[in-house]
Each structure stands twice: as structure tokens, then as C-alpha cells.
């Protein structure tokens, strides 16, 4: 589907900063203590400054794990503040995201998505909707059975 933006929205788009990280930095500079993210079910309220600190910490973690700009990282997370932070951090680190619906429950479907996307990493919730997702991942990648998660 394609929709042409009204002229005023196109002008706004031209004025926006060039990266997600730069947008977050700009928001921190303007409104450091304004609420940026609220997780109602998790009872979380973070200011732009707090959000950026969490995003930067995780982005640096990706880099510490030797991810390179353009690497694909798959996200298999529920709708949560962690999901938002992970998406922002991956963008900040220059990674490409392959977002996997939290409803995916079959090992074969997960394997297909990871193979098809060329993901070199996976961020997931160990237990989701009564599923032991760690078991699914360790079955796909037995070498991970000795890793602490």
C-alpha cells in the first residue's frame, strides 16, 4: 500500500534528524526529564534521559558481542519496554532487525525465520505465553545448552 503524504507532513519529514539515535539524542537535549516510555503492565516510567541510558547500555552490549553494522539481529519478544529498548538499541548500533511475532511457537517456523533473515543473533524472552522458548532455542542450537541465559 502506498499513501502520498500531505505537503506539511513531507516538510516535517525533511526536517527530522537522520538516525533514530540522533532523534533520541535530540529529545534528551530538549526534554531530558519528560516521560518518554511507559510500560503500564510493567509499572515502568522512563524519561528520555533514562531511556537513552538503557538504549546506550544495550547498544554497547551488541558491540561488545562483536556485532557489526548491518548484521541482522532477530527479536522474539512480547510487547514490552524491553522490546522497545532492544529495537532502539539495535538501531543505535546500526543493526538490522528481523522482528519475530511473539505468537511464533513452532521450532520449524522459528528456524525458517532465522535462516531466511540471515540473523546472526537472537534476542528472546525465556518464557512466553506458557512456552519454554529457551528449550526451543537450545533444541535448534544445541551448542547453546552450556550458555547461561
Automatic annotation (TrEMBL):
Name the InterPro entries on file.
Answer: AMP-dep_synth/lig_dom (IPR000873)
Q: Which residues cross the membrane?
A: none
Q: Which GO terms describe its biological process?
A: fatty acid metabolic process
Concerning Pfam families, the annotation shows:
AMP-binding
The record's annotation in Gene3D superfamilies points to:
3.40.50.980
User: What is the protein name for this chain?
Assistant: AMP-dependent synthetase/ligase domain-containing protein
Which source organism? Hyaloperonospora arabidopsidis (strain Emoy2) (Downy mildew agent)
Q: Which family does it belong to?
A: Belongs to the ATP-dependent AMP-binding enzyme family.
Q: Name one GO molecular function term.
A: medium-chain fatty acid-CoA ligase activity
Domain of life of the native organism: Eukaryota
Every copy of the AMP-dependent synthetase/ligase domain together lies at: 25-128
Sorted UniProt keywords: Ligase
**Organism placement in taxonomy:** Eukaryota, Sar, Stramenopiles, Oomycota, Peronosporomycetes
Amino acid at each position: 500500500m502506498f499513501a502520498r503524504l500531505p505537503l506539511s507532513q513531507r516538510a516535517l519529514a525533511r526536517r527530522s534528524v537522520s538516525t533514530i539515535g540522533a532523534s533520541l539524542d535530540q529529545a534528551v537535549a530538549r526534554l531530558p526529564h519528560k516521560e518518554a516510555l511507559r510500560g503500564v503492565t510493567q509499572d515502568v516510567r522512563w524519561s528520555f534521559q533514562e531511556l537513552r541510558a538503557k538504549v546506550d547500555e544495550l547498544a554497547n552490549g551488541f558491540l561488545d558481542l562483536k556485532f557489526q553494522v548491518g548484521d541482522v539481529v532477530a527479536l522474539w519478544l512480547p510487547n514490552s519496554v524491553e522490546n522497545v529498548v532492544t529495537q532502539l538499541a539495535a538501531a543505535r548500533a546500526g543493526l538490522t532487525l528481523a522482528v519475530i511475532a511473539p505468537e511464533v511457537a513452532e521450532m520449524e517456523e522459528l528456524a525458517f525465520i532465522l535462516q531466511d533473515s540471515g540473523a546472526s543473533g537472537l534476542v528472546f524472552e525465556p518464557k512466553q505465553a506458557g512456552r519454554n522458548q529457551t528449550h526451543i532455542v537450545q533444541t535448534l542450537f544445541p551448542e547453546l545448552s552450556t550458555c547461561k541465559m
